[in-house]
Amino acid sequence: MAWGIGNNSQHSTDFMGEIAALGAAFVWALSSTIWQRVGKQMPAVVLNLLKGAIALFMLLATVLILGKPLPAINPNILAMLLISGGLGIGIGDTAFFIVLKYLGARRTLLLETLSPPLTALFGLIFLQENLSPIACTGILLTICGVAWVIAERTAETSLPSKHLWQGLAISLLGQTTHAAGAVLSRAAFTQIDIDPLWTAALRLSGGLAVMLCFLNPTNRDSFKQLKAPKLLNAIILAAFLGTYLGIFLQQISLKYAPAGIAQALSSTSPLFILPLAVLAGEKVSLRAVLGVVCAIGGIALLLGLK
């Protein structure tokens, strides 16, 4: 089944979708530095569940404060958004945390570059989003630039063959579910004019429902660690940045930009990590700078489409 896009209000005349995608990448870069430390202390499914629950509370509080009522929504679109969250957040984000432990941050982020082309492919098949050659070139340049930066230091430690293959398989599952979730969310936006705050909340609800299915008695013992104030505060801060703001900005990008372009721009988090590294006193190599220039060239092509 294909959902046609058509010439409607979704084709914004400004760069709201693209800017929101870059904003999502920025807050994900900030939160990733926190998640990498916290992820060593708690199981992936528990961490994902906690960040989702905290962000959902923040989103619902926001819509209540702003007085944004949930519009009339038919069951098919509601199902799209809930399944989108179940796939992208419930399965995709949990897979991301698991792969972090198996492969390390750089390998995990390198594999994340598979998500934009998968999203563009699904968008073409299911949404009939035919991207122009310039758009495809922009996506390719952006992905290559990000991959070039991430792949610079891959000698983290040698990995057992079993962990390597398990990590690759779980990562592929995660990228596929992220792409499918993004396209389903984009499909919902083409059918109804709904505030991204509500779609973010509905997607998180679907994701939480899936995550609850993954919990087992052993996982529940991990919640006792939340008695440590530093750990709890770190999770709340990362949930605010990476989940509350990140998913909200991602939903804005999917409302106003084609799925493939939105996913490509939102995957540029590693580029934002470099300035943070410089501020922290780390040296940035010429290779990293060239990768950033390549990715910025791709971003410029995507922003020059309108």
What does this structure look like?
With 306 residues, the protein is an all-alpha fold. It has helices spanning 16-38, 44-66, 75-103, 105-112, 115-126, 133-150, 161-191, 196-214, 217-220, 229-256, 259-266, 269-279, 286-303. α2 packs across α10 and α6 packs parallel to α11. The protein is globular, with a radius of gyration of 19 Å. The two termini are 28 Å apart.
* Average pLDDT for all residues: 85
Low-confidence stretches: 1-13
Biggest beta-sheet profile: none
What's the count of strands? 0
Strand-pairing-aware structural class: mainly alpha
Percent of residues in helices comes to over 70%
End-to-end C-alpha gap: 28 Å
- Our estimate of the beta-strand percent is under 5%
What is this structure, in a nutshell?
This protein is mostly helical. It is globular, with a radius of gyration of 19 Å.
Top keywords for this entry?
single chain; 306 residues; mainly alpha; 13 helices; globular
Blueprint (SSEs and pairs):
Elements: H1 16-38, H2 44-66, H3 75-103, H4 105-112, H5 115-126, H6 133-150, H7 161-191, H8 196-214, H9 217-220, H10 229-256, H11 259-266, H12 269-279, H13 286-303
